[in-house]
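In the lab's daily routine, each protein ends up as an entry in a very long ledger. A line of letters takes care of the sequence, but it says nothing directly about the fold. The three-dimensional part falls to structure tokens, numbers that each stand for a local backbone shape. The outcome of that step, for a single protein, is printed below.
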Amino acid sequence: MNQWGEAPDEAHLPPETVLNQMEMAVIVCDRFSNVIYGNAFARQLFGFGGDEIIGHSILSLGIAEEDHEQATELARHVLKGGVWEGTFCNLRLDGTTVYTRAHAVPLRHPSGAVDGVVIFAREALRSNQREQDRYGLMERIGERLAGSLELESTLRRVADTLIPQFADHCFIDLYSGDRLYRRVSRHASGWAPPPGTWAEVGEPVSYPPGHPSEKAMSRRDAVLVEDTVQHRFASPTEPSRGLGDAMGITSVISAPLLVRGELLGVMSLALSHLSKRPDPHYDGFDRDLLGAIASRVALAVDNALLFGEERDTALAFQKHLLPGERPPRLDGLQIAWRYEPARPLESHGHGIQTQVGGDWYDVIPLSAGRVGLVIGDVEGRGARAAAVMGQLRAALRAFAQDDKPPADILRKLDEWVRTMTRPERMRSGWNSDDLVRPPLVSCTYFVYDAWSRVLEFANAGHDPPLLIVDGDVEDLPFESEGGMLGLRAPGLGGEILFNEETTQLKPGSTLVLYTDGLIDRRPKDDGDHYTREESRELVRAAVAKAARGGVDGARGGVDGARGGVEAIANAAYEAVPGDIDDDVAIVVIRTAGDELAVEERTFTAEPIMVSEARRMAADSFASWGMADEQAELACLLVSEVVTNVVLHATATPSPRRETPVPVPAGQPGRGGEPLGAPPPVQFNTDFGTGTLDGDPFDSGGSFESAPFEGGPYKGGSFDAGSFEGGAFDEDDWNLGADLGRREPPTKEFRLRLRRGADAIWVEVFDSDMRLPRIRSAGETDEGGRGLYLVDQLATRWGARPTSSGKAVWFELPLTP
């Protein structure tokens, strides 16, 4: 410098030298957000070497995925001529994380057009603008805490935000009762403390007097140990102290987690030799910052704890409304089910409503080994949907015990659902909006008979199940989808039809029942969603692959490791990628590959046939290997039920029908009838010595006749002399045609015996429509105790209507 005011020659630095020597990252991008320049400090800050990012997107700077949308907003705003400022999370090539504070301005051409973007960046909290960086980190902490209501996720997010940016070690301890437990132990560079030194996650923690964490909790304020060499403090254990010295702990801050005056725990941060820092010590500014962070963390922890309690209560409530975790063992069927609430919570942010829903399923044992199966979905989410689901399940189980066809059960259930509409008093009084509409429910009800392999079902607006036969997967065909339960409100016209459908399943067939949460709104990687048909195709492919893994045809036996019902249920649940937006229920059933033992025979309803029915039962029980004592008991109950059926069958006459038949015409005009009309049917009641004794059709429905003497019937009347001199030929005497009366059919009953893996079922069918009931017999009554014995000695018994009468049944175990 020669004169005052003249700049020295060395002050004329080229721009490249200035950019490479300044302690701030400078990134220049073109209009398409591709990097065209980065100075030396940018390489150091973002952790890349050389010019490998030149020509690549700004996202190649390691911007975290959750900040991609923020980077897009930066480019959009600056290219319009604006200025943008914010904080990014960047992942370096060595795996470490750095938070950067970025300031972006437009790069203008002399003509005034914006040619690109210039970004100035520095590491947050390590600059001369610490107050602004503090706000940036607090903003980042707030975003992370607001993203979840789950406790573990909340604590993990806090630790990830602070390490390694603000600390080398992060510990969060929370109270459970009166004990303090370690909930988070996170360290820089993936380092982990040796076992037996610092407390691990889940272990209890006890801080001695004088420890910073103990001071913070007792003082209810943040405590700073700026230099641990100058200010020594007590450690929980000697190994803990030794590890701290070995790691070179230089500075510690502890802050209490307080919310509404309640102490939830303590949060501690420490610096050590794990990371290279210009100044490895905290100061008062850092203590205030951690105190502010701890207050926000405490609030988030409290919300997460409250939500966890509410969620656990709701899930426990719903689990107790659904069947247990293990399906029952049923003859001729293998069953697996799975229920999953919606998850994860951070994808929704709607609290408990995303967890509990109205999906439901059930397996209901019916008469004689038959099984009722149901799967359904109540509209909506939350506790109300779960409560409605519980009421529906209880109502359906009660209706199913009537053993009526599935369509009748759904009609009855629909009527019951529509009664759930009720007027409610509002503060404004009664008005048209007070009528709370009934819930909408979709469901399908099946009844399966494992011995005949007949599947009866009716549908109420639910998705058809998948049917797997010989490795081929297709939808079970529904002739009618039916309307949802509760669809027709009271007072509206029309009728919702539920059609009865029947199919026969092949041995080893598999049905996959599911609710719509399995196929609805699953997100793709590109941000779009799978359509229902795309999801259904993925499920079909997954269950087909799982089914080909093997087929276990045992009667209700243990499911195979591959190809079993459990494997198919898991494959169906995992078929569509992405978080589920609704709860999911899956039920998989597989029919037996072998025929089940059954014996059946029809008898005439006569008292003498009771012994024949008992003999058939005894022979069948012996062939099935039933214990003698149990077989004798079963035969006794067979006798009682068959006797009851025979007595009521013979005591109930069938309806008589008399149809006039043409007879040879008498003299016209006789009796006042029109000329040429056939005369009325006449019966000759004077039979002489060859008579019919009594009423041909007595109350028992049997036909008894005395021996006829004489020839065949002739001339439209009985002639006593015509019965003499020859045997009676039934072919010569058409009693029904000539007398104008039809002989009643002989009453019959059918005995059916079924054997299962652990029990036998006995069914007796007859044409009487009246269902039996237990009588209270007096001490001197000779009868009235048969059904009482059945009720006391059988495992279960009952009666159900059939299309031609009724069936009385009971169940007994094979062994006493």
Summary: The radius of gyration is 43 Å. The longest strand covers residues 97-108.
